[in-house]
Amino acid sequence: MSEQTVKGVISRSKGAPTELVDVVVPDPGPRDVIVKIAACGVCHTDLAYKQGGINDEYPFLLGHEAAGIVETVGSDVSHVEVGDFVVLNWRAVCGECRACKRGRPWYCFDTFNASKSMTLTDGTVLTPALGIGAFIEKTLIHELQCTKVNPETDPAVAGLLGCGVMAGLGAAMNTGNVGRGDSVAVIGCGGVGDAAIAGARLAGATTIIAIDRDPAKLEWATDLGATHTINGAEVDDVITAVQDLTDGNGVDVIVDAVGRPETYKQAFYARDLAGTVVLVGVPTPEMTLELPLVDFFSRGGALKSSWYGDCLPERDFPMLIDLYEQGRLPLEKFVTERVGLGDVEGAFSAMEAGKVLRSVVEL
């Protein structure tokens, strides 16, 4: 086999419109695989790459929230086989780093990536988003970046577990450890926040409060399991509104899916005296937080950050797909629209306007 040239979506420079271009995919290295992409969600992280919010290693090959079929495998690949239906993941745990050896592989940051680079036809090396790069007909990744799931599943639905939906589900279920009978609030009801709501419902929470300033998003949240809603633009104080819905106590677990100092303060004070705050919304580097230290001291509970929903792809993806297939997890409700590979720029606009939970590129 020799290298292939396929169509892919790149961001050439900060803030420039995306381009659909020819991308050269090399032969896989010994533990690499080529995956033919079936569907890839349009995630806010891709927009952050495009806008320069991650780093300046342009040009980027965008897309990372994907599912597809293994087409070619390297000489030493044993984890997957040609023909396997897989969801791509960006935490291919190494098993050797300090976190892995201490039994906390969801904190692994020595994750595996492909041994070779995809390039433009002139040889310019592309930086794949989150080590994946999946707005493309075929992508090159490490074998451990593939997680086999039920091949009967709609790829547009399965691929969502690759990033945003997993981040939200895991923020509630893994990081927040939501349990039966808990009260939960979620600030910010986009894709990640609504996934946290779905996760809280799945985990058995009885009071689930959705908080947003957009009535349409609050409707989405209700459809995914919220029992109460608070429109932040219509109440005097979000904290009091949460306490009013929980007998004055505040919630057991609150998820901040926005990631701003204002929303974090609301989360900090809207929880029960020993409640848990989970930050899953991504702040920008210049943001700072100022709170009285005595307020930290006078409250128990936990303040946590959730990276990728503290997930283990090999454990969580197949289990969540099974729950979806059983009708217990409505993942299909996150797919707002299905678009083509040439429609990524429009999908970014729809995302920024708050019109979609997820646009999914289908190939």
TrEMBL record:
<dbReference type="Pfam" id="PF00107">
    <property type="entry name" value="ADH_zinc_N"/>
</dbReference>
<keyword id="KW-0479">Metal-binding</keyword>
<protein>
    <submittedName>
        <fullName>S-(Hydroxymethyl)mycothiol dehydrogenase</fullName>
        <ecNumber>1.1.1.306</ecNumber>
    </submittedName>
</protein>
<dbReference type="InterPro" id="IPR011032">
    <property type="entry name" value="GroES-like_sf"/>
</dbReference>
<dbReference type="Pfam" id="PF08240">
    <property type="entry name" value="ADH_N"/>
</dbReference>
<dbReference type="InterPro" id="IPR020843">
    <property type="entry name" value="ER"/>
</dbReference>
<dbReference type="GO" id="GO:0050607">
    <property type="term" value="F:mycothiol-dependent formaldehyde dehydrogenase activity"/>
</dbReference>
<feature type="domain" description="Enoyl reductase (ER)">
    <location>
        <begin position="15"/>
        <end position="361"/>
    </location>
</feature>
<keyword id="KW-0560">Oxidoreductase</keyword>
<dbReference type="InterPro" id="IPR013149">
    <property type="entry name" value="ADH-like_C"/>
</dbReference>
<dbReference type="GO" id="GO:0008270">
    <property type="term" value="F:zinc ion binding"/>
</dbReference>
<keyword id="KW-0862">Zinc</keyword>
<dbReference type="InterPro" id="IPR013154">
    <property type="entry name" value="ADH-like_N"/>
</dbReference>
<dbReference type="InterPro" id="IPR017816">
    <property type="entry name" value="MycoS_dep_FDH"/>
</dbReference>
<dbReference type="InterPro" id="IPR036291">
    <property type="entry name" value="NAD(P)-bd_dom_sf"/>
</dbReference>
<dbReference type="InterPro" id="IPR002328">
    <property type="entry name" value="ADH_Zn_CS"/>
</dbReference>
<comment type="similarity">
    <text>Belongs to the zinc-containing alcohol dehydrogenase family.</text>
</comment>
